[in-house]
Specification:
about 200 residues; Rossmann fold; 3-stranded antiparallel sheet; 5-stranded parallel sheet; alpha/beta
C-alpha cells in the first residue's frame, strides 16, 4: 500500500512560566492510503497538538514529517458561515484558494447530489440539522481534494444519538471517496468502531 503520511521521532516542547513542558515525545507512525487511524487518549495527552503539527498549524520541536498530498482539517464545530447558502459554504475553500473552476464546482455538485444535500444547496445553515451541517462541512473539505483528512473531535458538539448516526455517515463517505483519515477522540468506542487500526497516546 502507498504511504501517504510518516512521522519520525516527532516531539513538541512548550515554554511555560514554570519551565519547559513536553507535549509530545518521539512519535513514530505511518499511514497508508485509504486507512482510517484514530488517536485516542485523555485530555491533555497531546492528541490535538499532534494533528495541528501534521496540518502545519504549529511547528514541531524535533523530528521529521513526510506528507504525500494535500491535507483537509475538520474541527469540533462545523464553522459554516450562517449568512452564506450551503452551496456558497461548500465552495468557500475553493474560493479562498482561487480554485473555483467549473471542473471543481461540478465535483462539488456531484458530492451534494451523492450525499443528499443538493436540494438544500440554496438553504442556509440554520435550516439544516446537525448531521446535515456536518455533511456540508465535510463536502467543503473534500472540495479541495485532500489526500488526508484530519478530524479533531469533529463530532463532539453533537448529541449522542446524532453522533452515532453522523460518524457512520461521514466514514462511509470517506470510504466511498477513498480518503485517508485521522481522527482525534477521547471516545474509545468511536475511535475503534470505525477505524482499521488505532493509536493510543497516554501520558
Amino acid at each position: 500500500m502507498k504511504k501517504v503520511l510518516e512521522l519520525k521521532n516527532v516531539s513538541k516542547k512548550y515554554q511555560a512560566k514554570n519551565g519547559e513542558v513536553e507535549a509530545l515525545k518521539n512519535i513514530n507512525l505511518h499511514v497508508n492510503e485509504g486507512e482510517f487511524v484514530s488517536i485516542i487518549g485523555p485530555s491533555g495527552c497531546g492528541k490535538s497538538t499532534l494533528l495541528s503539527i501534521i496540518a502545519g498549524l504549529e511547528p514541531k520541536t524535533t523530528g521529521q514529517i513526510e506528507i504525500a498530498g494535500a491535507i483537509g482539517y475538520m474541527l469540533q464545530k462545523d464553522s459554516l458561515l450562517e449568512w452564506k447558502t450551503i452551496y456558497d459554504n461548500v465552495t468557500f475553500g475553493l474560493e479562498i484558494k482561487h480554485q473555483k473552476t467549473k471542473e471543481n464546482e461540478n465535483y462539488v455538485i456531484d458530492l451534494l447530489k451523492k450525499y443528499g444535500l443538493y436540494e438544500f444547496k440554496d438553504k442556509y445553515p440554520n435550516q439544516l440539522s446537525g448531521g446535515m451541517r456536518q455533511r456540508a462541512a465535510l463536502i467543503r473539505t473534500l472540495a479541495i481534494n485532500p489526500k488526508i483528512l484530519l478530524l479533531d473531535e469533529a463530532f463532539s458538539a453533537l448529541d449522542y444519538q446524532t453522533r452515532i448516526m453522523v460518524t457512520g455517515d461521514i466514514f462511509q463517505i470517506l470510504k466511498n471517496e477513498n480518503i485517508t483519515a485521522m481522527i482525534v477522540t477521547h471516545d474509545i468506542s468511536e475511535g475503534i468502531g470505525k477505524m482499521r487500526h488505532y493509536i493510543c497516546l497516554i501520558k
